[in-house]
Each structure stands twice: as C-alpha cells, then as structure tokens.
Amino acid sequence: MLSLSFICFTLTGCLRSGMEELTNSSDKVLSSIDYTYRFLYTDTIQKGTDKQEIQEGRMCEVIFKKNTEKITEGGLDGFKTTISYDINSVLKAGPTGSVTKAMLYKEFEKLIKTDQLNKLWVYMTISDVATITGVKDAPKLGSEGNFSTDHIYRVKAADGSV
C-alpha cells in the first residue's frame, strides 16, 4: 500500500514542473464550406413480404456540388460559392426499401423550388484550435438556416486573433 501511494505521488508530481510552455496558435483558417439540404420521407422495407415494415421519418440528405473561390470584399477574406446538384447528390441512408434514389431526387426538386436557399445545412472546416461564430444575422451553424443572402462568420484563433 505504501509503495502504491508513492508511485501515484511520483507520477502526478512530474506533471507540475519541467513542462515546456506552449504558445497559443494563431491558426484561423476557414478551409472549406459544404452545403446540404435535408428532408424526411416514408419508406417501405421488404415490401410485399411477411416482414414488410413501413419506416416513417427517414432522412434524405442532398449534398450540393460546389464551386468555391476565395474573395476579399470590404477588407474581409471570404468565399464565393456556386452550388449545384444532380441525382448523384442524393444520399439515402439505411436499408433499401421501395423508395428509389430517383424518387427522392424528384421530391427534392419539388422542395428546393419552394425552399430555395432558405433551409440549408452548412458545414465549415476551420483550423483545429480555432472557433467560429456568426456575425449579425448569420444562421447558427449546426441547424438549418437561410443562406439566400450573404453572411459573415468570424474565425478566432486560440491566441485571440481573428
């Protein structure tokens, strides 16, 4: 028992001294932006069998193709992105049922005509030690938002620079 206590004391003691002082990173790069659209649908699994199951609330995600160029506008660095889609943009998760990718694409085309850019999910990749926050009316990341107008997000490095 005495030797165990000594080992624990010795191991924790070395963490308090002799450690290199680390400087905060100034990395604050926003390297990519991805746009998706999501909607729910109902599907029938193993249709026409005794194991047939109707699944409601299945998620379909459409991942937009993008053409992104870096820009500087009003003294701010940013991205100008043009998005597009085709049938291959449609992702269908889970077991295959009676709903096809073509059917989901047709439904998406109907929905996107109404929603336009008002219900997009946007994912941004930033430096590992940085944080990102929306400025003014920028939609909160991690939920659907209206991206029919330009928005500004501030990327802050660990050292506090933006």
Summarize the amount of helix as a percent range.
10-25%
Strand count: 8
Biggest beta sheet attributes? 4 strands, antiparallel
Strand residue content: 35-45%
Q: How would you spell out the order of helices and strands? A: HEEEEEHEEE
Low-confidence stretches: 1-14
Going by helix content, strand content and strand pairing, the class is alpha+beta
How many individual helices?
Answer: 2
Measured between the Cα atoms of the first and last residue, the distance is 52 Å
Mean pLDDT: 83
Work out the radius of gyration: 24 Å
Q: How are strands sequenced across the largest beta sheet?
A: 5-2-1-6
Shape: elongated
Write a brief caption for the model:
By secondary structure, the chain is an alpha+beta fold. The chain contains 2 helices and 8 strands; from the N terminus they run αβββββαβββ.
Note down, in words, how this protein is organized.
With 162 residues, this protein is of the alpha+beta class. Helices cover 17% and strands 40% of the residues. It is built from two helices and eight strands. It has helices at 2-13, 101-115, and strands spanning 30-45, 53-63, 65-73, 76-84, 90-92, 120-126, 131-135, 152-156. A four-stranded antiparallel beta sheet has the order 5-2-1-6. The termini are far apart. 7% of the residues are buried. The model is unreliable at 1-14 (pLDDT under 50).
List the defining traits of the structure above.
162 residues; alpha+beta; four-stranded antiparallel beta sheet; two-stranded antiparallel ribbon; 2 helices; 40% strand; elongated; disordered N terminus
